[in-house]
Every structure is written in C-alpha cells, then in structure tokens.
Design brief:
The chain has about 150 residues and is an alpha+beta fold. About 20% of the residues lie in helices and about 45% in strands. The model has no long low-confidence stretch (mean pLDDT about 95).
Length: about 150
C-alpha cells in the first residue's frame, strides 16, 4: 500500500519528535528505518531492561512497539498535529532474549482522526530473527499538539 504524508516536512518532524522523547532515550532506542507509514526502532539488551530471568522486560518490548506504531502514524499526519495512542493490544509470542530487539511499526489503515497500525517486535540473533511480540494499535491525530 502506497501511503502519502500530509506534511511535506514529515521526515524532519518525526525525527525531531523522536529525539525529544525522554523515555525512548532511557531505553536507548534508536530509529533505524523511517518511511511514510513505517518506522523501525531498535534497543540493545541491558541488565536494567530485563526481568528476573534475564529476558527483555515486557514493558520494554511493548514500549518500543507502541512508539514504532505511533511514529509510523505520525509520519502521515498533517503539520501541526501530534500523535497519542488510544488503545493497544499486544501478544508476547516468545521470550525476548536476543541481544537486540527491533520493533517494526506499520500503518494498516490511515485515517483523519484514528489510524490503525501494527507493531511487530523481533529478536535479532546471529542466525536470524525470532518473532517476540505482535500488537495492534489505535493512534489519534491531535491537531495543535505539534508532535
């Protein structure tokens, strides 16, 4: 599906918004892919992001999925608007024990007020990737929020 941003300066706006998000900085998240309706975020395994068995905590996994989906939606919104998640459902499919996680946010259905996106999280390992989580996200376009 070909998605067209409503803001000609969408890329700079998305990158600027991501750079101002303290929680993603706390997780050490970095944006590794950006296209209209598509964002990838990666984090590296650190002790402070794990649960008691040494896997990535579900909160870290869910957070990068949410932000990847949100920024994928924001890439399509008009200038002068921001994004907020109004609902999401996430399924944890496998233990997140790889050294790196990548969340791939993809818009499924853009809308004027509500946009639906998916967020899939994969553990990147030497021999490939493991599907760790999948989520469905409803994102709101809020005018005047300025990303």
């Amino acid at each position: 599906m070909l998605l067209t941003p409503k803001d000609p300066d969408w890329e700079a706006r998305v990158r600027s918004s991501f750079a101002r998000q303290p929680f993603m900085a706390t997780l050490g998240a970095r944006m590794t892919h950006l296209a209209p309706g598509a964002v990838d975020l990666e984090i590296e395994l650190r002790d402070d992001l794990t649960q008691q068995h040494g896997y990535f905590h579900a909160g870290a996994t869910s957070s990068i999925a949410d932000s990847a989906a949100g920024y994928a939606a924001l890439s399509l919104f008009p200038a002068g608007s921001g994004v907020l998640t109004s609902e999401y459902k996430i399924n944890l499919l496998n233990p997140a024990k790889a050294p790196t996680l990548v969340a791939r946010g993809r818009v499924i259905k853009p809308g004027r007020t509500l946009t639906i996106a998916r967020g899939d999280v994969y553990g990147l390992e030497e021999n490939g990737q493991v599907h760790v989580a999948t989520g469905l996200f409803t994102l709101m376009c809020l005018e005047g929020l300025n990303d």
